[in-house]
Structures are given as structure tokens and as C-alpha cells.
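Design request, C-alpha cells follow.
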């Protein structure tokens, strides 16, 4: 999910304009305040963030699954799912800048097809989701709110909502980490606020495994997270330094060349539209692009 594109846009809740914070935005500040400043205050993401095949792959899988579950269950098949994936891939405007050689594009394209095959094999695809890629929101205080998008929302037999987030990466050894992931109760808060009905569970659905990683939260736990996020937002507003924090993710960071930590260590100095096109079945240009894919 590209939260950077939402930076600076107000959030309207019941006629009140609030500054919005996505869970990933808040997580960025927790991880490294300086990276937060680079992205959300200095707006440096377009200049420094590099196209990543892993992110491109994830975007196309999400697009294919959304379109797949929009279809009537009688129309769903593995072949249809694979075709939706290929079409999403072929029309994405970031394809050329992401893949500089055919071999890499083929590698990730085949990986996507296999992930979708595993998903189709392991999971029930006959249901009718309540919502797909739905924006949800919830106020934090008089000036700020949470804003996010949920991949899929089902309704369980007891009438409660089941929030589902697709994951294309390697699943962890256990689901124990879910209890410490602040994003999950944050989405729980937003879904209940948006739809006015209780959430029963929330799951990370790793496509290559048959069992979702599922968590539940009590009302006290969810409200505790709301209070924590409210204080985190206040801390961000009061921060006038945004000091960098060294952490294991530093070596993957796109902002190393301008990071004070990196510059001290090295002595150095700083230095197309994507989108989903619905499958109409008669667009010859898209068909030609699909047929030219190396997978």
C-alpha cells in the first residue's frame, strides 16, 4: 500500500477535517523519526525511493485478488486469477522502471503465478466478501485521525467482521508477533468506527500457507492502542529534531546517502503512473501487452 501518496491530504470525519495518519506512517516514526521526516515532511520519497520488484509484485497480486473476488463465484478459476494477474502486471506504468532486464521480470512474474496457485489451492474462494480494498478511518483526537485501507473484509457466521490483509512474503515461524503489531488493533479500531459493527478477528493471510495468522483483541486492548497512538501523534507534533535511530533496517533504507548516521560513518555528503485497468475482454492493446510478458 502506497501511503506516501496520501501525505498532506486532510481526513474528513463527520464534517470535521482532521490530519490523517496511516498505521504505516506511525510505524515509520517509531522505527526512525528521521526517515519519517524525509518522507512525510520533506516529501523526498519521489526523489529517493527506488522501484522494488517485491513491491511491484505485491501490488499486482493485490490488484488481481481484488478483481477476482469482484467476480461471481461461478466465474472464478485459477486460470482467471492468473489472467487477472498478468493483465494487472502488463498495464502498470511502473513496470519498465522496476525491471531493467527480462530475466528478473520473468523471475518475479513466475513467483507471482505460483503464489496465486498456492492461494487458490489452500483457501476457499467461493465466498462473497463484504468489502474489498476499503478505506477505513477513525478519529484519535480533535485534530487527528487514523486512515487506512483493508484488503478484504468478510462477515463471519456470528455477524462480526473478519479483516484480512494479504501477505506475499515468507511467513514467520509463529503467529506470536501479531500481539505486538500495532497495525492490527489500529485497523480494528478503524473498521469498527467506519462500519459501526464489531470486529471478531483480524488475519494476515500469507498466500503460500493454508492457515491464516489470526489475532483477536479485547475492547480494553483496542482502546489502549488508541490512547498510545494518540500520544504518539502528539509526540510527532512536538518533535523539532526527528533524530535518526540506528536499526537493522538501515541497510535497506533508500535515504542512506542523506542520513546523518550514514554521513558520520562514511564521511560522505548527501547527494510514470500506475493503476488498475478493469478486464473488459476486448482491449487489443492490453492483450498485446499481456502476450509480450516473459512469463
Amino acid at each position: 500500500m502506497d501511503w506516501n501518496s496520501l501525505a498532506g491530504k486532510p481526513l474528513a470525519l463527520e464534517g470535521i477535517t482532521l490530519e490523517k495518519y496511516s498505521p504505516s506512517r506511525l510505524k515509520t516514526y517509531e522505527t526512525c523519526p528521521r526517515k519519517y521526516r524525509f518522507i512525510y515532511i520533506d516529501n523526498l520519497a519521489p526523489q529517493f525511493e527506488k522501484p522494488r520488484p517485491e513491491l511491484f509484485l505485491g501490488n499486482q497480486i493485490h490488484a488481481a485478488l481484488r478483481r477476482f473476488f469482484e467476480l461471481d463465484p461461478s466465474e472464478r478459476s485459477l486460470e482467471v486469477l492468473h489472467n487477472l494477474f498478468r493483465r494487472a502486471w502488463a498495464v502498470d506504468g511502473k513496470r519498465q522502471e522496476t525491471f531493467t532486464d527480462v530475466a528478473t521480470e520473468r523471475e518475479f512474474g513466475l513467483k507471482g503465478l505460483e503464489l496465486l496457485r498456492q492461494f487458490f489451492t489452500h483457501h476457499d474462494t467461493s465466498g462473497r466478501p463484504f468489502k474489498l480494498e476499503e478505506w477505513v478511518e477513525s478519529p484519535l483526537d480533535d485534530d487527528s485521525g487514523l486512515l487506512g485501507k483493508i484488503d478484504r473484509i468478510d462477515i463471519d457466521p456470528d455477524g462480526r467482521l473478519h479483516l484480512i490483509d494479504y501477505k506475499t512474503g515468507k511467513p514467520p515461524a509463529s503467529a506470536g508477533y501479531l500481539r505486538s503489531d500495532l497495525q492490527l488493533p489500529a485497523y480494528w479500531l478503524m473498521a469498527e468506527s467506519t462500519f459501526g459493527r464489531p470486529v471478531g478477528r483480524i488475519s494476515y493471510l500469507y498466500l503460500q500457507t493454508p492457515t491464516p495468522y489470526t489475532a483477536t483483541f479485547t475492547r480494553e486492548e483496542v482502546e489502549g492502542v488508541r490512547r498510545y497512538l494518540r500520544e504518539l501523534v502528539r509526540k510527532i507534533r512536538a518533535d523539532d529534531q526527528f533524530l535518526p535511530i540506528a536499526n537493522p533496517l538501515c541497510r535497506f533504507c533508500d535515504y542512506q546517502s542523506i542520513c546523518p548516521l550514514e554521513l558520520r560513518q562514511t564521511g560522505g555528503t548527501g547527494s510514470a503512473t500506475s493503476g488498475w485497468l478493469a478486464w473488459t475482454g476486448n482491449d487489443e492493446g492490453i492483450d498485446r501487452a499481456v502476450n509480450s510478458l516473459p512469463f
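Comment from the thread starter after seeing the answer: thanks! The CA atoms of residues 39 and 45 lie 5 Å apart.
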